[in-house]
Amino acid sequence: MSSPRRSTIRITGDTPRRRGEDRGRQARAGITRAWQVYEELFATVAAGNARSLDVPALALRTVRAARAWAPELVAEMEGVAEGAGVPFWTIAALNARTEILAEAGAPRAGECSTLVRGGPRTTGGQCWDWHRELADAWHLQTVAGDAQGFAGITEHGILAKIGVNEAGVGVLFNILGHADDAATGVPVHLVARQVLGTAGSFAEAVGMLTGAPVSASTVITVVTGDRAASVELAPAGSAVVAPDDRGWLVRTNHFLAPALAAGELRGRREPETYDRHRLLTARVLTHDGGRGTDASDAVALGPDRLVRLLTAHRDDGAEVCCHAPAEGSLGSRWATLATVAVDPAERCLTVHDGGPCSAGPETWTALTAPRR
């Protein structure tokens, strides 16, 4: 593979505080740049919806919820703030950016698409779509020193996002939208961090997710060497969505569980999530080319196959691979910032910097979850 142009931060420390300090020192410049964009993004989105935000107060409100659920996550964020030399509430706000944007009334056009193929060798991956202005605000990472070492991608200052740990537990990430979303509970990015750093099995990961007291909606898809499920999280509760009878999970940005879909917000505002889901579902139906019709005959969904399935633009019927317009203001320029493939059995994650349509044999960077 070619040398990555995306930086990899290797974080160590025998306590949450020390791991946070290590992260803050290494990502200091990136955290400062990311915060400048997020500070403007929060204000821009709120103003566009005739709302005002007290970002420090909202961030610290989520900290109280996180402290009650997993105080070690707060200690780690405190370490990040100290290592980066920034106020603690700014690190809390970065980790609660989904919740704060929900309070601001942010639209979520664009966003992520995920595919998982279950079977004897369960594999999967996704596009990660976000604001083009934050294209330089993320990095690759390995983290050692917690109960489970893990590798993945995340934004500067945010503890985790997409990844896989040394026990072979992987997580993929799609934001949802519910009518009750707010900034009162544990931030969903911290929930993903807790799974990656502590879950030793599929059952532990799912149990942790369904018990998380969140206040903004997301679906975290758990992938292990031989199992997969999407866990939908919302203020109204949680639901576990199993693969279909062929072993496929297709996720975009709307609820699939009927009880939670009653409060659907994102799909009502931005119905393109349904277009992406329909297109990808149709593609996976023909993916195996007659080699099998159930999960026992699954073909591994490695980077090459994943790219072929995820490369779709508006002319194809849905913009899975998202490109930002040349013009536009902050909050309206969405792009696929990364394409990620996960092989949990190998504890490995491979990352392409950009959308699937630009991926090639030499563009992938491989990361393996470190041992504790």
Question: Could you walk me through the main structural features you see in this protein, from its secondary elements to its overall organization?
Answer:
There is one protein chain. With about 375 residues, the chain is of the alpha+beta class. About 35% of the residues lie in helices and about 20% in strands. It has helices at about 15-25, 30-50, 55-70, 70-85, 90-95, 95-105, 190-200, 200-210, 260, 265-270, 270-285, 305-310, and strands at about 10, 115, 125-130, 140-145, 150-155, 160-165, 170-175, 220-225, 230-235, 235-240, 250, 335-345, 350, 365-370. Strands 1-4-5-6-7-8-9-10 form an eight-stranded mixed sheet, with helices on one face. A six-stranded antiparallel sheet has the order 11-2-3-12-13-14, covered by helices on one side. Strand 12 and strand 13 form a beta hairpin. It is globular and about 50 Å long. The mean pLDDT is about 95.
Q: Which key terms come to mind for this protein?
A:
372 residues, alpha+beta, eight-stranded mixed β-sheet, six-stranded antiparallel β-sheet, 12 helices, 14 strands, 34% helix, 22% strand
